[in-house]
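Incident log, support desk, overnight shift.

02:14 A customer reports that sequence design results differ from what the structure should imply. Their input is reproduced verbatim below. On-call engineer (initials T.W.) acknowledged and began investigating.
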């Protein structure tokens, strides 16, 4: 779940029901179709250098995944997982015939074997996972990438980040891509929606870069912060995580 576009996934199918319910129904996150397309075009451009040529990618919390077909041209397998059933249904309707793309449900995700994924993508996902569940999520991802895979965690929000910074990023993108008036109207719809209430009640997890690197280390991962965030919110942070231990070590146990 992404406050600028993607939906998150839980650790094996469990997350705050408030956020799943929010993303499972129409909402005012995107101002219009141009906003949606511009958002995913930015993601596609930023992610391209990180994709494993001929490898397997798990996009965890993929949302509408408008970049999936482009990713499938570079990667052998693109596996899409989202916690919201309505999002998964839209993905199936659009992508079910693509030979390189598979849409996963909760059971499919839980059944993925150790070392089956070359790259886990988690773009704007951590903020929707309760802080007490992050350890289990990281261990699960560590299990999936085995000894040689990577995890790309993007759009991490720092504590006390004013919402005005997100609004400024949205309006900046709107000016560049020609949907400024629609973006302003969208902000009005958001102000009248239940987004802020759900964010307050369901939680919105934030991390300093140092804390996230400590969390990654505890899960058997080395997290390297990227110089530039993935996506259209430059004030947030992205990390690439690599395994510290070989596959089969205790750090791989799912918790």
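02:41 Re-run completed on a clean worker. Output:
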């Amino acid at each position: 779940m992404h406050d600028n576009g993607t939906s998150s996934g839980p650790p094996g199918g469990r997350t705050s029901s408030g956020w799943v319910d929010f993303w499972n129904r129409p909402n005012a996150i995107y101002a219009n179709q141009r906003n949606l397309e511009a958002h995913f075009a930015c993601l596609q451009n930023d992610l391209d250098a990180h994709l494993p040529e001929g490898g397997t990618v798990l996009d965890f919390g993929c949302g509408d995944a408008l970049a999936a077909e482009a990713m499938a041209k570079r990667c052998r397998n693109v596996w899409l997982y989202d916690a919201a059933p309505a999002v998964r249904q839209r993905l199936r309707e659009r992508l079910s015939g693509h030979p390189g793309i598979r849409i996963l449900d909760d059971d499919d995700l839980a059944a993925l074997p150790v070392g089956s994924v070359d790259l886990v993508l988690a773009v704007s996902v951590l903020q929707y996972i309760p802080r007490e569940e992050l350890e289990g999520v990281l261990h699960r991802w560590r299990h999936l990438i085995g000894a040689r895979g990577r995890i790309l965690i993007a759009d991490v929000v720092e504590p006390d980040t004013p919402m005005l910074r997100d609004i400024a990023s949205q309006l900046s993108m709107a000016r560049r891509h020609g949907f400024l008036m629609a973006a302003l109207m969208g902000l009005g719809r958001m102000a009248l929606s239940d987004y802020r209430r759900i964010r307050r009640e369901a939680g919105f997890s934030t991390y300093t870069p140092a804390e996230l690197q400590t969390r990654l280390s505890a899960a058997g991962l080395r997290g390297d912060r990227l110089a530039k965030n993935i996506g259209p919110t430059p004030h947030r942070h992205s990390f690439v995580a690599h395994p510290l231990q070989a596959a089969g070590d205790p750090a791989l146990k799912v918790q």
